[in-house]
Write a structure and sequence with these properties.
The chain is α+β, with helices and mostly antiparallel strands and 132 residues long. The N and C termini lie far apart (71 Å). 44% of the residues lie in helices and 32% in strands. The chain contains 2 helices and 4 strands; from the N terminus they run ααββββ.
C-alpha cells in the first residue's frame, strides 16, 4: 500500500511560488525590452529620413528628392525595424537606461544590420528614446 506524503504537495507549491516570484521580479526589472524599443527605433529612423528629404526638398525641390531616391534612399514609410535584440541594458544614475542593441533596418528587399547604444527613459506615455 502506497503511503501518501503531505510533503510532496508542499514542495511543489513552494517551488511554484518561487518560480512565480522570480518571473514577477524579472518582469519588473524596469528596463525597456525589445518590444518597447522596436517602434521607437522605427519612428526615429523614419523621422530622420523625412528630415533629410525635407532638407533636399528645400534645397532642390522635387529634383532634390528625386536625387535622393536615385541614390537609393527609400520612402520613409517603407522603413521597418525588425529583429531587435538587446545585448545589455543598465540603469544610469538619473534613472534612464543605456541599452546596447542590434536590429535590422528593412526597406524593400534591402536589409541593414545595425548595432548601437541608445538611451531611453520612461515618460507618462511610455518609453522614449533620448537624443544622441
Amino acid at each position: 500500500m502506497a503511503r501518501y506524503s503531505w510533503q510532496r504537495p508542499v514542495r511543489h507549491t513552494v517551488a511554484a511560488l518561487a518560480l512565480a516570484f522570480a518571473l514577477l521580479l524579472g518582469g519588473c526589472s524596469g528596463a525597456p525590452d525589445a518590444g518597447d524599443l522596436q517602434p521607437l527605433l522605427q519612428t526615429q529612423l523614419r523621422a530622420n529620413l523625412q528630415s533629410a528629404q525635407s532638407a533636399m526638398q528645400a534645397l532642390g525641390g522635387d529634383q532634390g528628392v528625386a536625387f535622393m531616391r536615385a541614390l537609393g534612399a527609400p520612402d520613409p514609410a517603407q522603413i521597418r525595424v525588425e529583429n531587435v535584440e538587446i545585448f545589455e541594458s543598465r540603469e544610469l544614475d538619473n534613472g534612464d537606461y543605456e541599452v546596447r542593441l542590434r536590429y535590422d533596418i528593412v526597406a524593400g528587399d534591402r536589409r541593414d544590420i545595425q548595432t548601437r547604444t541608445v538611451v531611453s527613459d520612461k515618460a507618462d506615455s511610455g518609453w522614449r528614446l533620448l537624443p544622441d
